[in-house]
Write a structure and sequence with these properties.
The chain has 9 helices and no strands. By secondary structure, the chain is mainly alpha-helical. The protein has one domain: Tetracycline Repressor, domain 2. Helix 2 packs across helix 3, helix 2 crosses helix 4 and helix 5 packs across helix 9.
């Protein structure tokens, strides 16, 4: 329970007018968040740095102090989301230092919680995964740990990956549309289902 509490606290930590004057680091993050909303609303093709600047109440030249081009800005948005996800994964790996079933289950649950808690990240993240052919993959560390466990335990990696991805993405959809209640009992059920889908150690 103590480890679960520590992990949940990590989620909480993440998860035209007159031009405003903000500290540069604060302005950069505000521009990135406005850029995420712009991508969610209009997609990469309709993305406008001018609208992003207007949403932040700064001049249309302000984004170029931080990003060389629209493409560089979108790349920075993806890096920003990856950094947030990597931070959460590192918290889980600190709480569960030994690779294995328990840690992989928590990484899968983190995938669910992260995208539920950051729906504005989710749209951009799915855009990227679709463009790279990995729209229904787990997080990088979870995929790597699953592959290692399957090899170690002699399990069919393709089958196990399909089961876990189905559980994770199915849970996200069902939690988003209200089919599943977003509560502790649901996540206990999901933890048990995910744990059952992870290949067992050889006896």
């Amino acid at each position: 329970m103590a480890k679960e509490k520590e992990i949940l606290e990590s989620y909480a930590d993440l998860m035209e007018g007159e031009e405003r004057v903000l500290p540069q680091t604060e302005l950069r993050e505000e521009l990135l968040l406005a850029g995420i909303s712009e991508l969610e609303a209009r997609g990469p093709g309709g993305f406008s740095l001018r609208r992003v600047a207007a949403a932040c109440g700064v001049s249309c030249a302000a984004p170029y102090k931080h990003f060389a081009s629209k493409e560089a800005f979108i790349a920075a948005i993806l890096s920003y989301i990856h950094e947030k996800w990597d931070l959460l994964e590192s918290h889980i790996c600190t709480a569960f230092p030994k690779p294995g079933t328990a840690r992989l289950a928590e990484l899968c649950l983190a995938d669910i919680r992260f995208w539920l808690g950051n729906p504005h990240f989710h749209t951009v993240h799915m855009m990227e995964r679709k463009s790279t052919g990995g729209a229904t993959r787990l997080g990088t560390r979870a995929e790597a740990e699953l592959a290692a466990l399957c090899a170690e335990r002699g399990a069919d990696h393709e089958r196990c990956a399909y089961l876990l991805r189905s559980l994770v993405y199915g849970a996200i959809l069902m939690l988003e549309d209200g089919t599943l209640e977003n509560g502790a009992s649901t996540f206990r059920m999901l933890r048990a289902a995910i744990t059952d889908a992870i290949p067992k150690e050889k006896v």
